[in-house]
Amino acid sequence: MKIIITQKEAMEKKVWDELVMMFGLQDKEDQVWENEQFILTEEQARKLALIS
């Protein structure tokens, strides 16, 4: 199963910092739009407590 989450949703669910680490977006030069989608594996979604 794949889970899709946007930057805006990640911010609302307070998992954005962890998502940034997962996708290697730590550089200040990395631009992310609020409706940009990130595809998570089931394992990643569980780690972020998005599913149980």
Q: Averaged pLDDT, please?
A: 91
Order of SSEs, N→C? EHHEH
> Helical proportion?
25-40%
Which structural class should the secondary elements be placed in?
alpha+beta
Number of strands: 2
Distance between the termini: 13 Å
The biggest beta sheet, please?
2 strands, antiparallel
Main sheet: which strands, in order across?
1-2
Question: Which residues form runs of ≥5 with pLDDT under 50?
Answer: none
The figure for the number of domains is: 1
Alpha-carbon Rg, integer: 11 Å
Tally of helical segments: 3
Strand residue content: 15-25%
Q: Given the C-alpha coordinates, what overall shape results?
A: globular
Short description:
The chain has helices spanning 7-12, 16-23, 42-47, and strands at 2-6, 37-41. It is of the alpha+beta class. The chain has one domain.
List the helices and strands and how they pair.
Layout: E1 2-6, H1 7-12, H2 16-23, E2 37-41, H3 42-47
Antiparallel strand pairs: 1-2
Structure characterization notes:
Helix content is 38%, strand content 19%. With 52 residues, it is an alpha+beta fold. The chain has one domain (2-48). A two-stranded antiparallel ribbon has the order 1-2. It is globular and about 35 Å long. The mean pLDDT is 91.
Keywords:
about 50 residues; alpha+beta; about 40% helix; single chain; two-stranded antiparallel sheet
